[in-house]
Amino acid sequence: MKVQLQNITKIFPSRNKKSKELVTAVNDFTFTVPDGKLIGLLGPSGCGKSTTLYMISGLEKPTSGKIFFGEDDVTELPPEKRGIGLVFQNYALYPHMTVRQNILFPLQNLKGEDKLTKEQMLDHVDEVTKLVQLEQYLDRKPNQMSGGQQQRVAIARALVKMPRVLLLDEPLSNLDARLRLQTREEIRRIQRETGITTIFVTHDQEEAMSISDMIVVMKLGVIQQVGEPQEVYDNPVNLFVSKFLGTPPINVFNGRISGEKLYIGEEEIASAEGKEDMDVYVGIRPEGFIVDPNGKLTCNLESREVMGRDVSIVSNHPESANPIVRSIVDSESVFDMDAQTIKYNIKKSKMFVFNKETEERVFFEGDKLPYHLTQYLEEIKSEETQTEENTQEDNA
Amino acid sequence: MVESKHSWKAWLYLAPAIVLLLVFTVWPIINTVRMAFLDDYSGLEEVGGTVFNFGVGNFIKVVQYQRFLDCLKTTSILCIATVPISTILALLIAVALNSIKVLQKFLQTVFFLPYVTNSIAIGMVFAAMFNIVGSFLGTENELVVTAGVINNVIEFFGGTHVNWINVGSTYAANIFVMVVYIVWNALPFKILILLGGLQSINKQYYDAAKVDGTSKGRILRKITVPLLSPMLAYVVITGFIGGFKEYTSIIGIFGETMGPADASGRLNTMVGFIYDALASNKQGRASAAALILFGIILVVTLINLQVSKKKVHY
Fold it and tell me: Which one in A81, A149, B28, B178 has a CA-CA gap of 20 to 30 Å to B72?
């Protein structure tokens, strides 16, 4: 099931009754979730990602804009008529019911034509518990289970009605680090096996990058960038996206373009052919540094952290926007720990230049243009016209 | 631990509470037990120098009293009738209050008003409402005209008026009035507790139910009531305890005669019986009755707890 969001805007009245200020949680959100894909809505807290999810679920109504499931306009439909499964952040499992009763609950609500016999219901429960591998826990109460198991019960409850769309609100935030790794694989597997279009919300970029087919990065209610995780990481469109993705985070330097050359401090880093003079931020991924005694960028060496395969070098630079500059280099790189400074060469594909005022990316010659929202929207449009043409042909 | 050289300070600070508890709670309890087990104990006679024998004579006398058994019956009927009715009504009102947004605070106050109103005053108002002759008492219209609001309503809808509480009224009619009054009087506290419970239920359970298309009735039965069960158990248990101690409500409506003028004492309760015994200087008998009442409340509460252990989730 394709989920299409057209110019969705959500405005909340201010919490403070006295001020009449309105809060725009989601601003003109247009995006189409392709059928059968796992999509991560990613952004810092307060960026409107959960609100977007709840609007898709129907628990919140958009102030303006339209939502389509496939060809159906569901904007005005209540949640129960949309055919969605929703997994809440804290699972919202009914504490007084066993796992079986919890999973049965949505089925027992079915009325009229959809009504199932007791056997059919139990078959459905069996099926879905097998999927989430909880067969032996059916008679437990939620509070007798671990967080990860509760999470799977919540997913089973959301899936038992065979929803058209599965929505997950911060599915891993209540789990400890190890369970998180395990559960995200689990979510990926379940999504693959069922093929249900799945949208999940997270503030953890690693989580989103690791399992999503596509991520949507949001900031203050506005989409910043969409694309495959690796694509977005390798080719951010602005400073925010580049900073938000990646651990350890990207290193940002104050720089300038002058005379068609890019400088950090007084050191010339790269040529900037055809660019006007301006102040810029230079973002360099930690893995973008190569230790080289003849390198272009000189940093003051602080310490070295060995991580087995790699070595993390902590240094600082007067023009760095952060207190430290962290690079991750091959453990075989040779350098003198007693030296005061270290020199780096920069991998061009790991360096991004942003206009200091707009914080938008400045593309250099040879840079691949990022797969951007506009491009994405055009693709969808052309796809639609194609299908329309096809149907017209069929009709003819 | 408090160091021993400072412990006298701790005792000093505790003293006001401890002294009050000892004088007004602990000693009376001990003394009640003592008096109950001294045959035919009377405080006046003890002062006069009489020595009483230890025994269970007081208990035997009390349970052989027809008057005591009548009190027990009335108390039990009132308890069994009012606790379920008031609990269910309070639940429905609390759920309704919780689901409305407009006027919620105002209505909450309205429903809470009876709690802060003197129950004797409320009783007098109820007595006037259920009266059959009201202000016509003593006039030549006395038995023809009804003045009570309730009877007026009944007659408006074509019924015949009922003699609720006046001379010649039946026991059933009296009990009916008492049940209405006690239920009405018990509602505010229960609504308050249940509303508090409702507001502490995580809203996500309802969101989850909504996504699954759960009907309102099912949400109430399958989600709200189970999640509210600790509060419901509390309300039922305190309801029974309060019910067995019913006394002022009877006074409020029927006055000190505890019944219509031609059947005084008919609606007497256990606590009423104890007061009567005290008034006639039979402290031994009163103490025995008090211990029996304590025993009954204890048993009922234990049963309640046992039931709620099975029904109260988490």
Answer: B28
As for the ipTM of the complex, it is: 0.78
CATH classification at residue B73: 1.10.3720.10
Domain extent at residue A286: 240-367
Per CB-CB distance under 8 Å, the chain A contacts of B218 are 109
Are A117 and A256 part of one and the same domain?
A: no
User: Is residue B174's pLDDT more than 80?
Assistant: yes
Range of the domain at B120: 59-131+166-311
> Which residues does chain A have within 8 Å of residue B227's beta carbon, measured at their own beta carbons?
94-96
pLDDT at B31 over 90: yes
Across the interface, whether the CB atoms of B213 and A80 are under 8 A apart is answered: yes
Q: Which amino acid is at A141?
A: K
Q: Which of B209, B213, B313 faces A95 most closely, judged by CB atoms?
A: B313
**A235 and A329 share a domain?**
no
Residue holding tokens 């089973």?
A156
Question: Minimal Cα distance from A56: which residue of B?
Answer: B211
Residue B45 lies in a domain: no
Report how many domains make up chain A. 2
Å from B228 to nearest chain A CA?
11
- Cβ separation of A81 and B226 shorter than 8 Å? no
Provide the angle, in degrees to the nearest 10, between the axes of the packed helices A118-132 and A177-194. 130
Q: What is the mean pLDDT of chain A?
A: 86
Q: Does one domain contain both A213 and A360? A: no
The reported pLDDT for the residue numbered A387 is 62
Q: What percent of chain A has pLDDT over 70?
A: 92
Reference A232, options A219, A213, A248, A251; nearest CA is A213
**Which DSSP category does A254 fall into?**
E
Answer with the one of A239, A273, A291 that is the final residue of a domain.
Answer: A239
Residue A158 shares a structural domain with residue A212: yes
Interface of B with A (CB under 8 A): 202, 204-205, 207-215, 218, 222-223, 226-227, 229, 313-314
Kindly report which listed range (A12-21, A187-196, B4-13, B102-111) carries the lowest average pLDDT score: A12-21
Choose among B205, B213, B314: nearest Cβ to A109: B213
Statement: residue B146 has pLDDT above 70:
no
Distance between start and end Cα atoms, chain A: 27
**Partner-chain contact A57 B211, CB within 8 Å:** yes
- pLDDT at site B294: 94
Q: In this structure, is residue B144 part of a structural domain?
A: no
Query: Which has the minimum average pLDDT: A173-177, A218-222, B120-124, B207-211?
Result: A173-177
Q: Are residues A267 and A343 in the same domain?
A: yes
Say yes or no: A190 and A245 in one domain: no
3-state SS assignment for residue A320: strand
Among A371, A57, A349, A68, residue whose Cα is nearest residue A224: A371
Query: What number of residues does chain B have?
Result: 314
| pLDDT above 60: residue B1 | no
Q: By the 8 A CB rule, do A81 and A152 touch?
A: no
